[in-house]
From TrEMBL:
Keywords: Hydrolase, Membrane, Metal-binding, Metalloprotease, Protease, Transmembrane, Transmembrane helix, Zinc. Its cofactor is Zn(2+). The keyword Zinc applies. The keyword Metal-binding applies. It comes from the Eukaryota. Binds 1 zinc ion per subunit. Pfam families: Peptidase_M48. GO terms for molecular function: metal ion binding; metalloendopeptidase activity. The chain crosses the membrane at residues 27-54, 66-85, 106-131, 143-163, 175-192. This is Peptidase M48 domain-containing protein. Gene3D superfamilies: Metalloproteases ('zincins'), catalytic domain. One of its GO terms (biological process) is proteolysis. Residues 233-400 form the Peptidase M48 domain.
């Protein structure tokens, strides 16, 4: 193996508090186990909850029953994700990719070339999760945009890999870590802008007799009405923003299937997210967690041959540290999903309250009954699997808010 695969220069000083190979394995499996236990409990509680709900609502229609049963399918999907992580660790997928890069057609290339080769393959594999949204891209234009996002995601990973290799040449670990954190923050902000790409290709929402109240409300709230778009084949609406711009997307199915007052109530909910800066807080949260994992990469992963060995490496390629960091980051995010879901549910209820305070409570309840299929859920199930509270909880909270306002 090439001798240029060295660790950062001050590795010896950090050795005292680095994990052993066994500890690194435990750090890998702990979030998997936590997630498995939580998901098993959540699905058991949800099953019991649905049985009791069906008994207390004997007149429930077939469509509603099937919709409720479908909520249980999130469990096998969750198990599959955990299985994939476990399998990738056991079968040493990351070291195998590195081996492929060193034995393939660039075997005699420089470290930079082999590192880029590794990153392209690794990133092409993990970015496949973008295709989870393929059902939303049901036109040629939508598919092309999805492939463009996939391609840009790989380009972003390669850029970060090259930065890490270049920064590794710095004498001080602290300086290298600082610059890499900064580069990651800038890359994430650019990547966040990339999320606007599909929206730019949507038509702007036209103001007519049905959408007039919605436009009036937007102007009342000083929202630029040129930034309201019509979503294609979408029975929902959402608000999105970056540091530079903000947009609201109203689905075409939502407009067709609901009264103007219900659609305006949904607009009021989206303006509630804007009022409370929910998207900005989310973006800062992402930047913070990435910075934390970058620090872990520089001070625990990079100087530790034992962490590399736990994954099945017999050398310590610098570029692979990004893949190891990403694996730990994803695993711990998975285990902490209930916390992020609870926060997300809190901001949804707060946006509902905002709409109710603006006088759209009843209309929002009607819209929720039309567009949401998540009727009811046990609290643990909702914390584990749902970013939005069930209709039952949302409607009860809106009614409570309306009663307080009387
Ligand atoms: Zn919302």
């Amino acid at each position: 193996m090439a001798t240029d695969l060295s660790l950062l220069p001050d590795a010896a000083a950090a050795k005292r508090w680095l994990p052993s190979k066994d500890q690194a394995k435990k750090i890998f499996y702990a979030p998997l186990l936590v997630s498995l236990v939580i998901q098993c409990c959540a699905i058991a509680f949800q099953t019991a909850h649905l049985i009791m709900y069906a008994r207390s609502n004997p007149t429930m229609g077939t469509r509603e029953s099937v919709g409720m049963m479908l909520t249980l399918t999130l469990f096998p999907a969750g198990l599959l994700t955990l299985g994939c992580y476990s399998m990738s660790f056991k079968k040493q997928w990351i070291p195998r990719l590195w081996k492929r890069a060193n034995e393939g057609r660039f075997a005699n290339g420089s470290l930079l070339v082999r590192s880029v080769d590794f990153t392209v393959f690794w990133s092409a594999l993990i970015s496949l999760n973008l295709f989870n949204y393929i059902h939303l891209a049901m036109s040629i234009k939508g598919l092309l945009l999805l492939f463009a996002e996939y391609f840009l995601s790989i380009v972003g990973s390669v850029f970060l890999a090259i930065c890490l290799l270049k920064l590794n040449a710095k004498k001080s670990r602290h300086v290298a870590c600082f610059w890499f954190c900064l580069v990651t923050i800038v890359t994430t902000l650019v990547d966040w802008e990339r999320g606007f790409l599909p929206i730019e290709f949507l038509p702007r929402l036209k103001e007519d007799k049905n959408t007039k109240p919605l436009f009036k409300l937007a102007r009342q709230d000083y929202f630029d009405t040129k930034q309201i778009y019509e979503g294609e084949r979408l029975n929902n609406a959402f608000y999105t923003r970056s540091l530079l711009r903000e947009k609201i997307i109203i689905g075409d199915y939502l407009l067709e299937g609901n009264t103007p007052s219900s659609v305006t109530a949904v607009m009021a909910h989206e303006l509630g997210h804007r009022f409370n800066n929910d998207l900005t807080v989310r973006l800062y949260g992402i930047l913070l967690s990435q910075t934390f994992w970058n620090v872990v990469m520089f001070y625990i992963i990079l100087p530790s041959p034992e962490v590399y060995a736990a994954f099945g490496f017999d050398t310590e390629p610098i570029v692979a540290a990004i893949a190891l960091r990403e694996t730990f980051h994803s695993l711990y995010s998975l285990a902490l999903t209930p916390l992020s879901n609870l926060w997300s549910q809190h901001v949804e209820l707060r946006a509902d309250r905002f709409a109710a305070e603006m006088g759209y409570g009843e209309s929002l309840i009607k819209a929720l009954e039309e567009i949401s299929f998540h009727k009811t859920g046990n609290w643990l199930y909702e914390a584990v699997y749902c970013s939005h509270p069930s209709n039952e909880r949302r409607i009860a909270a809106i009614r409570k808010q309306m009663a307080q306002m009387r």
